[in-house]
Design goal:
Strand content: 5-15%
Number of helices: 7
Number of domains: 2
Order of helices and strands: EHHHHHEEEHH
Bound molecules: zinc ion
Largest sheet: 4 strands, antiparallel
Keywords: Membrane, Transmembrane, Transmembrane helix
Distance between the termini: 23 Å
């Protein structure tokens, strides 16, 4: 079944955008590779960075005073405690590191990106190209029952239009109006 161009009212030059071979009508770019986001997901939350910096400062200050203080009069056990006391500031560091890693929110953002991309691909697949007029268009009804169709879209506006139609389809605008 051939669809009709809204500009020349003819089905003669109409092809699927995938068959057009035009770079302007290329499919929407896929979301970032999960591997990359996984690495970004291991960064620390801001509060954890602050806590780690504070712990490190306390440890450095403690170590400095422990190593410079003159303890010649004190007994051996006291000296040992004093000299090694600063290390307690380092003990919570691994726990802070574990709790402070960004883990949970990343997959959610990813799923959303996939949904948005899936919608854009769906919109893109339904677009048609008229070779005679050099425009893209969507026929009435192809994106849902109430979808009114579009006029001929200039090729340079095609990617933006795909995004806008995907957003509207996400809110089920057409379904509500049908
Ligand atoms: Zn046409």
């Amino acid at each position: 079944m051939s669809e009709q161009c809204p500009q020349c009212n003819s089905p003669d030059g109409v092809v699927r955008v995938a068959e057009s071979g035009l770079p302007e009508l290329a499919p929407p770019p896929p979301p970032p590779v999960p591997g990359k986001a996984g690495k970004a997901g291991k960064r620390l939350r801001p509060w954890a960075v602050v806590v780690l910096v504070v712990l490190a400062c306390l440890a450095v200050l403690g170590a400095r005073s422990a190593l410079t203080e003159d303890l010649s009069g004190a007994d051996a056990a006291y000296q040992l405690g004093y000299r090694l006391g600063w290390t307690v500031f380092l003990l919570p560091a691994p726990l802070v590191w574990l709790l402070g890693r960004r883990t949970a929110p990343e997959p959610v953002g990813h799923r959303h990106a996939h949904t948005v991309w899936g919608l854009r691909m769906w919109v893109w697949e339904h677009a048609r190209h008229c070779r005679s007029c050099r425009v893209a268009f969507w026929s009435p009804g192809v994106l849902g029952e109430g979808f009114p169709g579009t006029p001929g879209i200039p090729l340079h506006e095609f990617p933006l239009t795909v995004g806008a139609l995907a957003e509207r389809a996400d809110g089920n605008t057409y379904a509500k109006h049908s």
